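Problem: given the chain below (465 residues), write out its structure.
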Amino acid sequence: MAVLKLIVFVAIPIAISIYCYTNCGKEEIPKIEDGWWGRDSAGQGAVDRPPVPFVVKASNATLADLRSRLENTRFPSSLDGTAFEYGLNSDYLRKVVSHWKDTFNWDAQQAKLNAYPQFKVNIEGIDIHFVRIQPKKPSNSANEKTRAIMLIHGWPGSYWEFYKLIPLLMETKSGDKTNEKESISFEIICPSIPGYGFSEAPHKPGFDALDAARVFMKLMKKLGHDKFYVQGGDWGSAISILMAQAYPENILGVHVNFVFPPVRKASLGPFVRLLIGEIWPSLIHSPAEIKTRLSLKQLFFNAVRESGYMHLQATKPDTVASGLNDSPAGLAAYILEKFSSWSNYDNVHCPDGCITKHFTLDEVLTNVMIYWLSGNIGSSMRFYKEYFTSDDVVPWDSVPVVVPSGIAAFRYELVQHTRSIAELKFSNIVRYTDFPRGGHFAALEVPELLAEDIKAFVRAVESLK
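Solution.
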């Protein structure tokens, strides 16, 4: 109770300060202007070109260099009797490196990455990588709608996260016989955020989530889609929400599995509700929410324990990148530790981080390979600094999401908000689902749950028309 009182006494003045900071001056929503992120300004008048096919192909020299670096890894020592409490255990890292070096079949994983059509197209001076899967011609097209949906990943993930989700979304039968008369098929567009995966990194400072939202809007229009659905988790959620806020006339619906917190300024509402909900839960939360929500104490300590990386990446990302971009073992340790603790906080007590309880080692190493081959770990982390120091993103914190919205709340997600809290941001929630399992990387961990929730959300929105 003493800890809770301390949190309350600290949180109340902080909340009041934030409220004053927010309302001392009313900011207008800035006009969304085009950007240019190429190496110079010479190409600003360049001719618009169509997307070109792209194939993932690591050269023999690149793979030989990787193997050499893995063989010469200098491992740190671990404390006796510890698991992942201090981060990824070096004893387990030795096993990961051994598997990566001697067992992992990159040719097979590379073939999986190339199983879906991939492309690149230049937008605002940088090449944007994306996967595009178009539905096959249905046998009874009169009873089937086709809707475009953009799936957006986050950090430290990649477009690879969606590869188990994509075939489930492409299945037109929902399993609900009441919907068989009119099924919905998807055209799926899955881009890599600029500076992630095989998308070119911006060459000028300032590229934030609002810029990504604008670039992805341009991508969809290049592909002939003026109206479409958007879905995301982590940064994908932030970008999806900004697309829904900035382009409500284009977004048919937004579905997220991560409710993004405010950037630097926020209304007092969520803070007050959390505090009141801690003391008098029934005034704020439903009976079901009271049973499943985390206490304010849990939220506070989880945030402190898991946010150290964020401070580093939001302040000095290039320093961290110098080590990670040079050492594949270091890169794997940094990324795999997140796949452990962000899937369930209790995984820190597992000797192997319980990583293979949620994913296969090949799945997470394929994600690491995308960062290694592209060399984009530095630019991916730089996205944090651009976001948290951006003056363009901040005003959107106070703008409600008015388009039809769906929220998939997985039990072990990093940031958890009950529906009553989410409604302060989303004014048109048509579907909110609490899942008893699943964590931050839901598309890769529990794709069947996420796929069915996305389908049910789209059906619900379409039924409103």
